[in-house]
Each structure stands twice: as structure tokens, then as C-alpha cells.
Amino acid sequence: MDNTNFNQQPANQQPVAPQPTYASQPTIPAGYEPISMWGYFGYELLFSIPCIGFIFLCVFAFGGTQNVNLKNFARSYFCFLIIAVVLLVVLLVLTGGIAAIASMDM
User: What pTM value is reported for the model?
Assistant: First the structure.
């Protein structure tokens, strides 16, 4: 057998397709950078501060940042606060009404 043609492929094998090249890191625009877990935790703490947190929450929710993820997180936290306040008012009205009815019976 003649071993002089090492680089030739045998007749029964498929040619090897070239591998595609991938970028090492996808480029994410600055407005869409993800927030880390500690970032969410820090913003949660910031928004929990009574007066200053509400100001920051309104600023971030209504366009004070270019990051879409932070803006959406602030909007969802703002909606949560609105729902909590409405439920608290309803609860206070119901318990106040029950207390008023109970005091009239006496």
C-alpha cells in the first residue's frame, strides 16, 4: 500500500465543513444592560427608604434612567406600592365601618 497521499480523504467520507466563528461576547447596548442580583437587592433597599426611596422610585419609573431593565423594575415596584396602598385603605374603611357599627349597638 502506498502511503504518500496522507492529506487526501477516502472516497467514502464526507468533506469536513468549516466551523462557524462566533463573537466572544455579545454586545449589549447600554440601555439594555442586565441588572445583577445584588443590583436588584440594592434598588429594593433604596426604594424601601420612606421619603427618599419614593422620590428615587418616581424618578426611575418615569424616565430618570436609560436602562430599560431598571425602569421596568421601578415601574413594577411602583405598581406594587399602589396596590398595597389601595388594599390598606379598603381594609381601614372596612374595619372602621365595623367599629362604627359595633359602637352604635352599645
Answer: 0.68
